[in-house]
């Protein structure tokens, strides 16, 4: 599934593929924003790379559908 996170006052967004279900990612973001006590939200992409995003800087989170088989070169 593709995850895109918009950051406040930044022209770029964070975009990565995740093996987590959309409901898991949404629940992690909602709980971090609702409590207001978590300074960071952690995401892990399909390759194992971790992303730590400050909860105060999240403008939006876009959750894409499950991606199908990709065609082309893989890095």
Automatic annotation (TrEMBL):
Pfam families: DUF3107 (PF11305). It comes from the Bacteria. This is DUF3107 domain-containing protein. It comes from Leucobacter ruminantium.
